[in-house]
Write a structure and sequence with these properties.
The structure holds three protein chains of three kinds. By secondary structure, chain B is α+β, with helices and mostly antiparallel strands. By secondary structure, chain C is mostly helical. The longest helix of chain C has 30 residues. Classes of the chains: A mainly beta, B alpha+beta, C mainly alpha. Chains in contact: A-B, A-C, B-C. At the A-C interface, α1, β4, β13 and α8 of A face α2, α7 and α8 of C.
């Protein structure tokens, strides 16, 4: 009879259950014997069983007063296979799909996986890919699942064009966006595949570029990508409306904070009346103002830039309104994901302490400092509501990455010849943030074994203290003797201010000069044997460069002094001052003005060769190491000078090759000399007159390692100097 | 060289503190003026604390605290401010902390596990 | 340990597969054993051996400290066989798999939280079972561990002179983790922090509670010395709610 006739369910029987025990199915149903045959409740039960996803089909029927639940279980997947894929290998496809062997097969799960595979191919630029799921029935209600894939070919970008751009050429705009035209040398990157999301991102990049160049009314009218006639690639066209060029109008500061003199802050601003309008400068100003006002002890700072656009004389006035921000306090800082690094190693980088007033720029700086540790693949910092409206919890999620490095390097340089090194380094020892490095370098002319350990927060204070052990042997052909140095050093460094760093160090070193050639200079022969040096030194560095590895702007000045004589058999004072100034020139060139000079004088004794200054090789291109300094003309050995000075003017410029190759050309002139070998013997030639060299250079950050090549032509030199045309160094790490 | 000025905790201005009148202000008034209390007394009933300090730090030297305020506010049963007491930096005392720590277990990674343990586990610089 | 050789795929009767798996397990070849038990479940999902094999596979993974695999297999077992008579053991083994990954207090305590959650699952679902007794013991240890983490952070702030931050951390311990071994130290650290701030009344009240509840502890001796050092006595604040709940 039909379910609808009512009456009481006396019994419930499950049919067709093979793998899932009937008792489990009963537990899904909200109906029990004794309930009435109520169609609504029965429909609910049907839906409940079906929602478990374990069944392909569920039917209810009635035999007199018994409710029969007939189920057909979804099959179990036996194996999963992929056919027809070669651009993407099986393991990557497997990682993408959710279905696994021994899991219940349902149609919806297969459809979701097909979509996931299509998305994967789309991300790799294959829009024409098609995926067909096939089922092979096996006994005991099991199935093998096969994804038949037809990958189609890569839909590349044929060309990228711009319409309506007057101020900037197509090529310079192409440099600004991330999508690029397909070209043979871009086989590594996938930037040259068609990806609609990336085109939207490009729309934003273009807007930011124009806004930073003064075009405040800039709009991207449309981005159109059509397949060209042979359907092998897309033609992308950006239509833009640049609008007029604006300059900054009035720039003023208002504040509601008590006794804050806004005029003091004017000096910090980048946006100046009359300059071309630049949106990024306004953003930078907001950041600097938040920092500066924050540092003056104001807890809740909120800076709002208000712009006034004047369309007649095309100026944009800016008012930075410094107000009291919302009064929110940091209730707690939770650090998660640090499976290896200790909590305090991350917590001590925080500029905010629990209980402090919440300050966005301090939070941003804290995130930057945690990232600079280099221990984490990702650092994300969120703010979550706390236990009261004016309290918030800062949640820091980090993802650890391997900080252990074994680098094996090889190199070739004119000063040392072929060299090989191996270095074992752990930058986050025991998760305590300590750095331990053991290195061994071997080359034709030298060998070096060193171990160095650094604790960045000595005694829980921001002092980077550490010690070094070293054993260095070096053959000096230019002076015909061998030198071996063994010793240890202690050092402590701290930041005086955000950009100035001071390092104090001590070094105890035993030095042995041995197998001096018998025709070597008698000055050198007199220094054969062992000496012990006990040296206290300090370096003061003021570093305002934009970045350490490839500086394009800013300057760096370093003063270092060393005093030997607290014990040991050598007494001298050795000082040097270095300065480098980088100026961005034209489109992408950098002018580097460099200068350094140094002076050593023995205290109550002559200086020794090993302590004097040797210039040449990479420091003075065109001359051999020690090639532009005092020399024993009889034995033709370089003696090193008590004093030296060096200057360099170098222009580095792109060679017009595409960005990916990262090759830069250089033109340089070096000038300098080292002199005074603490000896007025007749056979010693030494003069302070400047030597000058000039020449081209090339530096290439190749995928195998940095390569540096300089050709130095000495224009002005002394007759006893030793030249060296080529100076070359190449190091690889793998 | 510039020292860094920091404000820790909740350092209310004197004008705000003066607004709180014993016998008149209620809990809601106090929260409106000073915000949620920095901490509550654990063992004295109906006592709130607002703790804050201003400090200047140069390089790695201990920051010197230029101004500290520990404001204690006690309420009567009806939630009206009974008494406010302000401690400043002068009341602070230097104490030396006990070195002993209550032990905890948990798998402390051995030295070698640390060095080589994660070379392979996380696909890092060399592990890829 | 056992090699990771991949088992070649061949259809075999269920008993043979199960027994081969079992013998491997006894010989300590856990990896091979878990693969064989997986095969039982793959090739014979409907045999009565399938659920048992799933449990054994999880146990093999657990023996080899492959905790994630063990937990995934157990989750699948619980999902498919909620009514199975071994399901209590499955919940328990899952809890233990989390518990054994608890790392020291200086590091992320996610494993401790997951262990605590699944241990409480065991005590709630199977209150009478012997698993529940062991789970309860481990719950206390896990809570003690979480309290240890708050203490480490509290001590870090205390040493840095950040008294407010340390006070709030120690208060979390005495309010949410009263029954752990860290409470006496938390009370003493509060005395230290409040003394440093010069709030002697709070320090005295805290020391009184410490003395009242842990009279013989070294921590009370330290607090007492700290107070008497500045000629103060621990005095209980009559009305304080804390003395009622301790």
């Amino acid at each position: 009879q039909s379910i609808m006739q009512g009456g009481v369910i006396e019994e419930i029987r499950i049919e067709g259950a093979q793998r899932i025990d009937p008792q489990t199915i009963r537990s899904f149903m909200p109906i029990d014997p004794g309930d009435r045959f109520d169609p609504l409740r029965l429909d609910e039960a049907l839906k409940a069983i079906f929602d478990t996803g374990l069944f392909a089909d569920v039917t209810l029927r009635r035999e007199r007063n018994a409710l029969i639940v007939a189920v057909v279980e979804n099959p179990i997947i036996n194996r999963i296979a992929f056919e027809g894929n070669d651009a993407i290998d099986d393991s990557q496809l497997e990682g993408e799909v959710e279905l696994r062997p021994r899991v219940v097969y349902t149609r919806t799960r297969v459809q979701n996986d097909v979509q996931r595979l299509l998305d994967l191919y789309r991300r790799n630029g294959r829009f024409a890919a098609r995926v067909e799921p096939k089922i092979i029935q096996l006994e005991q209600n099991r199935v093998d699942l096969v994804f038949e894939i037809n990958e189609g070919d890569v839909t590349g970008i044929k060309s990228v064009n711009f319409i309506g751009n007057r101020a900037f050429s197509d090529s310079s705009l192409r440099g600004e966006i991330s999508t690029s035209e397909s070209a043979w040398y871009r086989f590594l990157s996938s930037d040259d595949t068609y990806d609609p999301d990336r085109l939207n991102f490009d729309r934003e990049l273009l807007r930011r570029f124009y806004l930073s160049e003064g075009y405040a009314d800039f709009r991207v009218l449309s981005v159109v990508a059509e397949l060209d006639d042979d359907r092998s690639g897309f033609i992308v066209t950006f239509t833009v409306d640049e609008g007029p060029l604006y300059t900054f109008g009035e720039v003023d500061l208002t504040t509601t904070l008590r006794d804050l003199d806004v005029e003091l802050l004017r000096g910090e601003l980048q946006a100046r009346p009359g300059d071309t309008y630049d949106a990024t400068a306004v953003e930078a100003d907001v950041d600097t103002l938040t920092d500066v006002v924050g540092n003056l002890g104001y807890a809740f700072v909120d800076i709002r830039p208000r712009t006034r656009r004047d369309r007649e004389n095309l100026t944009i006035g800016i008012t930075y309104d410094i107000q009291e921000g919302p009064k929110v306090f940091v209730e707690r800082i939770d650090i998660e994901g640090n499976t290896r690094t200790l909590d305090r190693v991350v917590r001590r980088e925080f500029r905010l302490i629990e209980g402090d007033a919440f300050n966005a720029s301090k939070l941003r700086r804290s995130r930057q400092r945690i990232e600079n540790l280099g221990f984490f693949r990702s650092v994300n910092v969120q703010q979550e509501p706390g236990s009261a409206p004016d309290r918030s919890v800062v949640k820091v999620q980090v993802e650890e990455q391997s900080t252990g490095e074994i680098t094996i390097g090889a190199g070739l340089s004119t000063s040392v010849g072929l060299l090989g090194n191996i270095q074992l380094r752990e930058r986050n020892l025991l998760g305590r943030g300590q750095d331990l490095r053991v290195g061994f370098t071997l080359s034709g002319a030298s060998s070096q074994l060193d171990l160095s350990f650094t604790e960045p927060y000595f005694l829980d204070r921001p002092i980077a203290a550490g010690f070094d052990l070293f054993r260095v042997t070096r053959e000096f052909e230019e002076s015909d003797f061998d030198q071996r140095r063994i010793g240890f050093g202690l050092r402590g460094g701290y930041d005086l201010t955000e950009h100035t760093r001071h390092v104090v160090r001590y070094r105890l070193e035993q030095q042995e000069i041995s197998d001096v050639d018998d025709d070597a200079s008698i000055l050198i022969r007199s220094e054969e044997g062992e000496t012990v040096r006990s040296i206290v030194g300090q370096d003061l560095t003021w570093d305002r460069r934009d970045n350490r590895f490839d500086p394009r702007e800013g300057f760096r000045v370093r003063l270092s002094n060393e005093a030997a004589g607290l014990g040991g058999d050598v007494r001298f004072l050795r000082n040097s001052l270095e300065g480098d100034y980088f100026i961005p020139v034209f489109e992408n060139m950098t002018l580097n003005l460099g200068g350094e000079f140094g002076y050593i004088f023995g205290i109550g004794e002559d200086t020794r060769i090993a302590d004097r200054f040797f210039i040449g090789g990479e420091s003075f291109r065109g001359f051999e190491p020690g090639g532009a300094g005092p020399r024993d003309v009889d034995s033709d050995d370089a003696l090193g000078g008590n004093a030296y000075y060096l200057g360099t003017v170098e222009l580095s410029f792109p060679l017009g090759l595409p960005e990916e190759f990262d090759i830069r050309g250089r033109l340089f002139t070096d000038i300098g000399a080292s002199f005074d070998a603490d000896s007025d013997a007749a056979f010693v030639e030494s003069t302070a007159t400047p030597r000058v060299s000039v020449g081209p250079g090339l530096s290439w950050r190749s995928p195998f390692g940095p390569l540096r090549l300089d050709l130095g032509f000495p224009l002005v030199k002394e007759d006893f100097d030793k030249e060296q045309l080529l100076s070359f160094s190449f190091g690889t790490q793998f | 060289c510039a020292e860094r000025v920091d404000v820790r905790g909740n350092l209310p201005d004197i004008e705000q503190v003066v607004e709180i009148e014993p016998g008149v202000s209620t809990r809601e008034d106090v929260v409106r003026i000073l915000g949620t209390p920095s901490t509550l007394s654990s063992f004295k009933d109906r006592t709130w604390y607002y703790i804050g300090q201003r400090q200047e730090q140069v390089a790695f030297f201990r920051p010197d605290i230029t101004d500290r305020s520990v404001l204690m506010i006690t309420f009567d049963e009806r939630g009206i401010v009974q008494e406010t007491r302000l401690n400043t930096i002068e009341d602070g005392r230097s104490i030396d902390l006990v070195g002993r720590e209550t032990p905890t277990e948990g798998r402390e990674l051995t030295f070698l596990q640390q060095i080589f343990g994660n070379l392979g586990r996380f696909p890092g610089a060399t592990g890829e | 340990c056992s090699g990771d050789e991949e088992l070649v795929y061949e259809e075999q009767p269920v008993e043979e597969l199960y027994n081969r798996g079992y013998t491997n397990l006894l010989e300590g070849q856990n990896d091979l054993a878990s693969q064989l038990f997986d095969e039982v479940e793959r090739q014979h999902p409907y045999s009565i051996w399938a659920p048992k094999a799933q449990l054994m596979a999880a146990y093999a993974h657990y023996q080899d400290n492959r905790y994630d695999d063990a937990i995934n297999t157990l989750d699948r077992f619980i999902e498919l066989n909620p009514g199975n008579q071994d399901v209590a053991y499955a919940y328990y083994l899952k809890a233990i798999s989390y518990y054994e990954q608890i790392s020291d207090v200086g590091r992320d305590q996610r494993m401790t939280e997951l262990a605590l959650e699944s241990l409480q699952d065991v005590t709630r679902r199977f209150p009478g079972s012997e698993y529940a007794r062991d789970a309860q013991l481990k719950i206390d240890l896990a809570r003690d561990h979480l309290a240890g983490k708050h203490m480490t952070i509290g001590r870090y702030y205390l040493r840095q002179g950040e008294y407010l931050a340390s006070i709030n951390r120690f208060r979390v311990v005495i309010e949410d983790y009263q029954t752990t071994t860290h409470t006496p130290e938390a009370l003493h650290r509060l005395v230290e922090a409040y003394m440093a701030l010069g709030v002697t009344s709070e320090a005295q009240a805290t020391a009184a509670v410490l003395g009242y509840n842990y009279p013989g502890s070294d921590w009370y001796i330290d607090s007492y010395a700290l107070l008497t050092g500045s000629d103060l006595r621990p005095e209980e604040d009559r009305g304080s709610w804390i003395s009622r709940i301790f």
